[in-house]
Amino acid sequence: MSDVTERLRHLRIPAMQAPMFLISGPEMVINACDAGVVGCFPAPNARTVETLDQWMADIKSANCANEKAAPWAVNLIVHPTYPRRDAELELVLKHKPPIVVTALGSPKHVVEQVHSYGGIVLADVVSPRFARKAVASGADGLILICVGAGGHTGYLSPFAFISEVRQWWDGLLVLGGGIGTGSAIHATQTMGADIAYLGTRFIPTAESLCQSEYKQMVADSHADDIVTSDAITGVKANWMRQSLVNGGYDPDDMPSQGSIDFASNGSDNKRWKDIWAAGQGVGASQSVSDVATIVRELESEYLASIERMPDLKNAILRG
Ligand SMILES: Cc1cc2nc3c(=O)[nH]c(=O)nc-3n(C[C@H](O)[C@H](O)[C@H](O)COP(=O)(O)O)c2cc1C
């Protein structure tokens, strides 16, 4: 087992702050790691390669300065058409993030390089078929994205997805989609995953890079307000109903599939800036807060959930 995988077994709570386009930057990552959960940001959030270099240097130095901090992660787009792919990989080799999360393509392109400095690669997948491919490409762990996830979503039930993958994979398993409470984090473990992946829960925070209206809309929204559509980015994603209305769409009559564009950040940037993504777990946030406070809340809910377990067992034993 690698050092990083071993460190992941000793997080304050088994959770990871998931990477979010236009939302997660260095402050969110540093504060998440200091609070005891893995922090992650998508490399394209840094507008230039020079900014990305600076962000990674800042995160690394803050992370090294706190020996209790959880390991940090960067999320790379590994699709061959993505123009900054090679430049970002060079910075990965320079700053050596303990964890690299790959999305939108095979992790094959980065595995050898990340292993060369002792890092691990976690591949974000939406089906058992992609999970098998990622493992065959050398991924050290899988992130199963399930139905209800914010942003580009999955479509499988976590119950079905985890149990099927666990038939042939006993390595690191991270689960994402609609997880917003400590009891849901505990549930991911009882289902057979190791770590929960939370995105939406961290949008309404001081550290989030988005505008305050976006944060407030997350705090005000509920599961009923989440609309799944492939009209905006060409890929099925979850969006907040009110932001679709504000953007001139009819959430109950969305247009057909939009064009997919992984190659340039520019147009994607605009689509994600105007229409605001969030997952079905949105109801877990009722106010704008900060990362450390949320991790403390998640921890107390997680521990309370574990403490309820003996009662359940005793009830069964008593028959
Ligand atoms: C606003 C937003 C932006 C996202 N951007 C990215 C991204 O750039 N890269 C990525 O791999 N996943 C991205 N995701 C997906 C998250 O990493 C994660 O899979 C998801 O948030 C988990 O589901 P949850 O939001 O229900 O917690 C995004 C999610 C949201 C809500």
Q: Could you characterize the architecture of this molecule?
A:
- The protein is an alpha/beta fold and 319 residues long.
- It folds into two domains: 3-209 and 292-318, Aldolase class I (TIM Barrel); 212-274, no CATH class.
- Helices cover 42% and strands 15% of the residues.
- It is built from twelve helices and eleven strands.
- It has helices spanning 3-8, 26-35, 49-65, 85-95, 108-116, 128-136, 158-166, 182-190, 212-220, 241-246, 265-274, 291-318, and strands spanning 15-17, 38-42, 72-77, 99-103, 120-125, 141-145, 151-152, 172-176, 195-198, 226-229, 237-240.
- The chain has an eight-stranded parallel barrel, surrounded by seven helices. The chain has a three-stranded antiparallel beta sheet with strand order 7-11-10.
- Helix 3 runs parallel beside helix 4 and helix 8 (182-190) crosses helix 12.
- The longest helix is centred in the last third of the chain and has 28 residues, at 291-318.
- The radius of gyration is 19 Å and the shape is globular.
- Bound molecules: flavin mononucleotide (FMN).
- Residues 18-21, 23, 42, 75, 103, 124, 145, 148-151, 176-179, 197-200, 277-279, 281 line the site of flavin mononucleotide.
